[in-house]
Specification:
The chain is mostly beta strands. The chain is about 5% helix and about 40% strand. The chain contains two helices and 23 strands. The strands form four sheets. Strands 1, 2, 3, 4, 7, 8, 9, 10, 11, 14, 17, 20, 21 and 22 form a 14-stranded antiparallel β-sheet that branches. A five-stranded antiparallel β-sheet has the order 13-12-18-19-23, with no helix packed on it. It has a two-stranded antiparallel ribbon with strand order 5-6.
Length: about 325
């Protein structure tokens, strides 16, 4: 059967239960009941997914062909580009004050009029990397703000199709756009912020949570969703890097006015769909703490090109405050 990508939709929910571990290593561990009221993650492209079976063949002397099957650690994953409509999901893509990411359940619902509908369910997920993209685009202006999120899941199950009404997607409203970026400020080494919104062409930020899959549960059979899965997804160092594209060059004071000029403070980006007397229906403030420029470059080009500038940077931390 042939199914077009527009028949798919991605839902999410916070995991509310916990895994019941095996007490004897022989009886299988069990998943709690999946959250029953997932919501639409946002406007997305078709996600890239993998069961993560890691199966292979084993060889030995005495025969030329493979001698046995090797079952590997099961490592499900899902990568999806999100254009935020409702912004609630963004608050669940960052760790708490103890550095722990919340567990999410992700659902890829695929409808098939010929009867082949299904839901791919990814349980106890955490984001391993996030790629924020804010850009001014070409001559006709910018497009949607987007976040490419790569999730690691603990377990995978294919289940019956969930019901998703078209109104659930329409209710998201218009996603935030480039013209909804209201403020872009950089603090210098003294903590004094200056706005560079006029000059900003684009901003990209990559967050790597350094996830590690811890150990491997016993093999209880291919029919058990927790068979050979990892016990935990452990966060390590949080690495944040990014790149700023500018039409105009940053002041030299940010690089060489004093001995510690390059020890910048925070980069703050405020996005909101408020306009005039109309209050915001959605928005967020993205703060990159302790920004530190890695370099400053100038793009090459023909004589009819504009001189543009790029500043790659790293940061100590990232936080998202949703309106």
């Amino acid at each position: 059967m042939f199914i077009p990508a527009h028949n798919a939709v991605v839902l999410y929910a916070l995991e509310s239960g916990s895994i019941t571990e095996s007490t004897n290593g022989t009886t299988a561990a069990t998943l709690p009941t999946a959250p029953t009221t997932p919501t639409v993650l946002g406007y997305t492209n078709l996600p890239q997914t993998a069961r993560g079976l890691n199966n292979s063949k084993g060889f030995a002397i005495g025969q030329q062909g493979a001698a046995y099957n090797k079952r590997g650690r099961v490592e499900p994953s899902i990568t999806v580009e999100i254009r935020p409509g409702s912004l609630e999901a963004l608050s669940h893509l960052q760790p708490n004050e103890d550095g722990i990411l919340p567990h999410l359940a992700l659902y890829v619902v695929v409808k098939d009029p010929d009867g082949g509908s299904y839901t791919d369910t990814y349980r106890f997920c955490k984001p391993t990397t996030l790629d924020w993209k804010l850009g001014g685009g070409g001559d006709k202006g910018g497009g949607e703000i987007s976040i490419s999120a790569a999730f690691w899941a603990t377990a995978y199950k294919r289940e019956a199709v969930l019901t998703v009404a078209p109104s659930d997607l329409r209710d998201l409203g218009t996603p935030l756009m480039w013209h909804d970026v209201r403020q872009f400020t950089i603090e210098d080494a003294t903590g004094s912020p200056t706005s560079y919104r006029r000059s900003l062409m684009n901003l990209s930020v990559k967050v790597d949570y350094g996830l590690e899959r811890k150990n491997e549960r016993p093999h209880w059979g291919d029919s058990e969703p927790l068979s050979r899965t990892s016990y935990a997804l452990l966060e390590h160092h949080q690495n944040i890097s990014g790149e700023i594209g500018l039409h105009e060059r940053l002041p030299e004071g940010l690089f060489s006015a004093a001995a510690q000029s390059q020890d910048w403070g925070d980069i703050v980006i405020v996005c909101s769909d408020a306009h005039g007397s109309v209050a915001a229906t959605k928005g967020f403030t993205l703060t990159l703490a302790g920004a530190f420029p890695s370099d400053e470059t100038q793009g090459g080009g023909e004589s009819n090109a504009e001189i543009d500038h790029t500043i790659p940077f790293t940061a100590d931390g990232i936080s998202v405050a949703v309106v």
